[in-house]
Amino acid sequence: MIRTVLGDVDELGVTNSHDHLFLASRVLPGQELDDVEAAFVELQRFRQAGGHTVVQWTPAGMGRRLDALPELSRRTGVTIVAATGLHQPQHYDPEWLRKSLPRLEELFVADITERRAGLIKVAGGFHGLDPHAVHTMTAAARAHHATGVPVSVHLELGTAALDVLDLLCDRLEVPPHRVILGHLNRFPDRWVQHRAAEAGAFLAFDGPSRANHATDWMLPTSLADLADAGHAAQLLLGGDTTTAAARGAPGMSYLLTHIRPRLEPELATQIFVTNPRRAF
User: What are the pLDDT tens digits along the chain (280 aa)?
Assistant: First the structure.
């Protein structure tokens, strides 16, 4: 079963596998996603384009608005999967972080069991894992073992994917198929992408139409390359809208109106429908 903000389900339909309806960070002042009606409009557009589910990766302490998500799901008819977890330390008020770090496992499990979070989102560092990443991933692994929900990982600029898998899967015994690696397209190293896929993890390509990342123009080739190598069942796509300036331009619907038509129909169905149901 998949835990959504309105209860557990076994189908998701066409899914945006990584996005943000709400998000606030100390490193993005003035760019908060905190407008409920703007989120409503964005979900409507996604629904009108043929979308059914949005997976919000916003972790604890970053304005994820768990209180607003159920009503938004009811109003729009879009299924929403919410996250718990913790990002890199620079995104938080130091005092909040100091109080939260000793009780992360407890926080994550409570979010899942009491607040209907269906995902644990954590973050790696640039080309490696610092002590904060190791601490949060250890808590995430323990919460996964207690609840069964998957662990998604922000890879800083797409790096350190194999370090993450070594920690989460080899050392902390999270099954690889319960790990979702995000932002691999931002560091399009074919060798790393294939090693991560061979390990059994899900690969989330996200944030299309960003001029500073290897996104749209490389995306179809990267996905087709992995599919041809036998990894079509591990691929996911998401919009990853993170700032108010990016909302609606291109917006969540861009995945379906501009990216999906560039994929072979069978592969598109697998990426947008079949794989999210298994991943989440």
Answer: 999 999 999 999 999 999 999 999 999 999 999 999 999 999 999 999 999 999 999 999 999 999 999 999 999 999 999 999 999 999 999 999 999 999 999 999 999 999 999 999 999 999 999 999 999 999 999 999 999 999 999 999 999 999 999 999 999 999 999 999 999 888 889 999 999 999 999 999 987 766 656 566 788 889 999 999 999 999 999 999 888 877 777 889 999 999 999 999 999 999 999 999 999 9
Domain of 9 in residue numbering reads as 2-279
Q: How many domains does the chain have?
A: 1
Binding-site residue numbers for Zn(2+) are 18, 20, 121, 154, 183, 240
Give CA separation, 207 vs 30, 94, 148, 261, 278, in Å: 20, 28, 27, 17, 21
Annotated binding site: 18, 20, 121, 154, 183, 240
The Cα–Cα gap between 81 and 6 comes to 9
CATH number of the CATH domain containing 215: 3.20.20.140
